[in-house]
Request: fold
Amino acid sequence: MTTLICNCNRTMPLDVPALGRALGETLTEHSTLCRREAPAFQQAARSGDDLVIACTQESRLFAELAEQTEGSPSLDVRPIHFVNIRETGGWGRESRQATAKMAALLAAARLPEPEPVPTATYKSAGRVLVIGPLERAESLAAQLTGTLQVSLFATGGAGMQERRYPVVAGRLQRVTGWLGAFDVSWATDNPIDLDLCTRCNACVAACPEGAIGLDYQIDLNACKSHRDCVKVCEAPGAIHFGRDATEHSERFDLVLDLREAPAFTQHAPPQGYFHLPAQTDLGAQLAALLKLRELVGEFDKPKFFQYKAKLCAHGRNEQLGCNACVDICSASAIESRLDSDTQRNQIEVNPYLCVGCGACTTVCPTGALSYHYPSAPDQGRRLRTLVTAYAKAGGKNAAVLIHSQEAGAALVNDLGRAAALDKTVNGVPARVLPLSGWHTASLGLEVWLAAKSWGASQVWVLATGEEAPDYLRALGEQMALGNTLLNGLGYSGEHFRLLHARDARDLATLDAELRAAPAATVPAPAAFAVQADKRATLELALDHLMAHAPQRSEVPIALPAAGAPLGQVLVDADKCTLCLSCVSACPASALLDNPDRPQLRFTEKNCVQCGLCVKTCPEGALQLQARLLPTEARKAPRVLNEAQPYGCIRCGKPFGTLKGVEAMLGRLAGHSMFQGAALERLKMCGDCRVIDLHTATNESRITDL
Reply:
């Protein structure tokens, strides 16, 4: 591994020997690596070693220079890793104290790229449907022709006389799908058939009420049935008031929607759908049109998620429990379905609608849905490397700043540049370690707690306005949960915080928030890695935090109920008949039976607070309580309820509980089918009940009739 660092024309101080010691590498300081000292980069490129370049501004130039350098491996074979140490620390007020941060950022950049993941493929032939008033639809369509095959769906307005595009009209019923597979359904019930209409305008001139517009559709509310239009359209025969409504459907690759109300109301519409109402500014309109023209061909998108149905707490036996992923998905990519084979309610994720935010994986309490681009272990490895390398280089009280790789990174860079030009701006503090990801919602409580276990003081998430409101709600709930948990263990301060900044107007507020006081850290950092199993990571983090807690106590810590994946189940012993239906419903094996005696047992560590047991219980005897039990007792099964067994009146073998059998007898005693001997058989085990039926002498048989 070769690392090249540059002080960017001496605008930031670099402690090169200290950085070299932290990375275990002899480093050379450059001042103009992208210009006068470019031969040093070319020499490193020819060496064949993996390259880390401490500059993102000139990444494109370095990539082109590597391709042009004789003897340099192709970027497909040996990619170059770029990392920003300038705006993220070198240009801040604390730049001279930022050596440990720079070492951490460089160490994280040296990690290998995550393994490739499966992809979803879109295929688009460029058939676009423009929905809206004719004059505007035709105007925008003119900017798409040549690249795309344009069709128009008229919603009024006035069209051109020249027929340039296929035009349909009617009652638009449904638009569904995604890039390359939009299914559009509509009904034509207007008297004018647009396929037969010649646009001669005779009907428009003849109509005394002016009920026919230049969209060549009749306003039936204004029409007074003079039928003058029918007379003048006798030759083409395009107008027929007795025409039956006809249903139509057609598939398009792209949809440009000009109506005020969009066809898709979710926060993240499908790929290939663009909504441009009349008030859209010119810049956004131009950007959408340019993007539309590019969407022809085949496009691969990563499958961001991995689903393990056996871990899912969504539903059992037609009972719905956890619905967190369905509720939070901003792309409407997740839906609930009943598996006809297993009779289990499961969730189904559409990879073509999924936008990769990862919010579903963050709120999933069991880890049935896990983020896969990159995977949780890969993301955890980056975070752990940042925190541990920072501490190894002498850094204290690391605050991890999680941000998106587009809007979030731009804001962090803007703050760094502002600090270089404005003496009143502090910039990114030396203890703040930026960590970019595809989306800020893809990392949740278990990873944040893991960061605390590795020695981080705080974890902050930067929201930039691109997040759906439900994402911010979920992140806020998880942060409230984490802060309550850590404060309950005696770790003082605010450990998790959601920061908000939309653009340069909010930089002053962000600058101030990044200077918040540190929170308490663990006295000894953990050594575990993030696991593929979400609950395993959560347990490792909790074990370490509890083992080193400043405040040792066996008193349970009450947690906010919203979004809590930890807690216990409370049983009303007076109502519970130990039917054990809750045991079969529990997806996490938190509720257990005892094969030797009538008992309901519970392992608190396994409980995900999904609520399936509560909804399944026929007696309504269960309820959830969100909490953390900070002792080893949370890992061992304990008895929630037990009862005296009921013995068969014939053979004495226990086959149920006294309370359960008595409840059954009480409910059926008045039924005509359960009188006399039939009622007594209910007091027998299954074997004796069959024997008694076949040996009874006072029973009527079919052969006696």
Remarks:
- The mean pLDDT is 92.
- The CA atoms of residues 85 and 102 lie 6 Å apart.
- Residues 469-488 form the longest helix (20 residues).
